[in-house]
Amino acid sequence: MSQESKVKTTESSPPASSKARKLLPVLDPSGDYYYWWLNTMVFPVMYNLIIIVCRACFPDLQHSYLVAWLVLDYTSDLLYLLDIVVHFHTGFLDQGILVVDKGRISSRYVRTWSFLLDLASLMPTDVAYVQLGLHTPMLRLNRFLRVPRLFEAFDRTETRTAYPNAFRITKLMLYIFVVIHWNSCLYFALSRYLGFGRDAWVYPDPAQPGFERLRRQYLYSFYFSTLILTTVGDTPLPAREEEYLFMVGDFLLAVMGFATIMGSMSSVIYNMNTADAAFYPDHALVKKYMKQQHVNRRLERRVIDWYQHLQINKKMTNEVAILQHLPERLRAEVAVSVHLSTLSRVQIFQNCEASLLEELVLKLQPQTYSPGEYVCRKGDIGREMYIIREGQLAVVADDGVTQYAVLGAGLYFGEISIINIKGNMSGNRRTANIKSLGYSDLFCLSKEDLREVLSEYPQAQVVMEEKGREILLKMNKLDVNAEAAEIALQEATESRLRGLDQQLDDLQTKFARLLAELESSALKIAYRIERLEWQTREWPMPEELAEADDEGEPGEGTSQGGEGRSAQEGPPDPE
């Protein structure tokens, strides 16, 4: 093969590194893969954060499991290295759009502090093992620089979990454990530096039976640190300056930790109360109002039972307020996923446009009725329709006892009263008494909300009126003659309106012509006045005439001649 063909082959084949980069996809920082990688990085970071300091302060732990520690150390280093690779393949948002160009991603990452910390956390400090030996785990303290990755993983989990308050408490307990763990390791290291068993404050002499075991050493140190940091007391008094300094530092840390714990717990409790207040109505104000207004005991008991039912069964009556901060489109999708199946069961809404149903779903208002409570009574003005979500309602007689029918979940009533159908013999009045047998959950759709939505969908309004007319025909509650009379009256009214519109258009045309003529006349008058002003500027002023009279006879002749000339040179007729 010639040299030229070799060069061409080299140029045509892309380098292996670029192929590898193309094989690795770009991760979305808000996606699932990136989220699970962050959770994976929790383990090596927590391993280094907890085990390294423990191995450095407890020599027996380091010597007993050296091989296991070396395997875990370099496994965590491998994950650290893979994390840098993941950083180079994690996109970012620019103008709200995910950037997938790996060149831009790399240039942006290398200019951040995160890149410098990641490199520093992987510095090969283990090379010093050659001189200092394998039993010096303190050389790996630079691995702590990857702790921000741990915080990022916790933040992502808190936003994704269904129990954020429980996760916050768990995270707080983990932080407390890490602080006590570090403090117990430092206590044991200080005791070894001062001498085991030298006084009552330090760790007892390992020569004593039981105190030589590694488990006993750690548990004793952890217990001692817990007593100090929780300010419980019952600890030996320090005897040396180093011990006093250690106790003072622990007391200051305990004060700060106590304040942090109290603040975090208060925040969690406040968030829980705020969530409950957002989901369920506040009954304390209603109870106080009823007490001040001396509401009878029976009615007060019914109100309290209603609130208790909502709280126990997790029923919500203010879904609109809960979802109000979502974008309108996203709020509609959430409402559709929850309530569209219920709304689509209503006969007059079947076969309607999907966008119309989405608009109507946002207008549904959840309502809960107590046992024996009337939803509507015969003769009431119908301003809304109801869809039964859960529970049972009875159609009862005027005595409230005799039941004609029982309505269950998925049924609806009152739909005809919210649509203005011509010839409806019942008008907009309720034709039956509907009473809740137990606790019933209903969806309410008002006439005003339906009218507002249908104003944007005139074709759907015609379809719904036709369906309602068919229902009334089956129920024998549609007066065909009255409907025809209303239609004729409506057509006559529309005809008169069209005539009035035509007359109004004619008047507007005449008025426009008058305005045009008026403007033309005004322009002509203004032009004439301007010509007169220019012509009168050449006339002699009264002061000049008076001076001419004072000059005598010649002046008189001149004046007469001037007057004659003035009379002869008077302004011409503007026409």
UniProtKB/TrEMBL annotation:
GO cellular component: intracellular cyclic nucleotide activated cation channel complex; non-motile cilium membrane
Reaction(s) catalysed (UniProt annotation): Li(+)(in) = Li(+)(out); Rb(+)(in) = Rb(+)(out); Cs(+)(in) = Cs(+)(out); NH4(+)(in) = NH4(+)(out)
Coiled-coil ranges (or none): 475-524
Region annotated Disordered, chain positions: 538-575
Domain Cyclic nucleotide-binding as annotated: residue spans: 348-454
Compositional bias of kind Acidic residues: 544-554
Localization annotation: Cell projection, Cilium membrane
Cross-referenced Pfam families: CLZ, cNMP_binding, Ion_trans
InterPro entries found in the cross-reference section: CLZ_dom, CNG_cation_channel, cNMP-bd_CS, cNMP-bd_dom, cNMP-bd_dom_sf, Ion_trans_dom, K_chnl_volt-dep_EAG/ELK/ERG, RmlC-like_jellyroll
One of the record's GO molecular function terms: intracellularly cGMP-activated cation channel activity
Membrane topology: Multi-pass membrane protein
Alphabetical list of SMART domains matching this protein: cNMP
Family note: Belongs to the cyclic nucleotide-gated cation channel (TC 1.A.1.5) family. CNGA4 subfamily.
UniProt protein name: Cyclic nucleotide-gated channel alpha-4
Gene that this sequence comes from: CNGA4
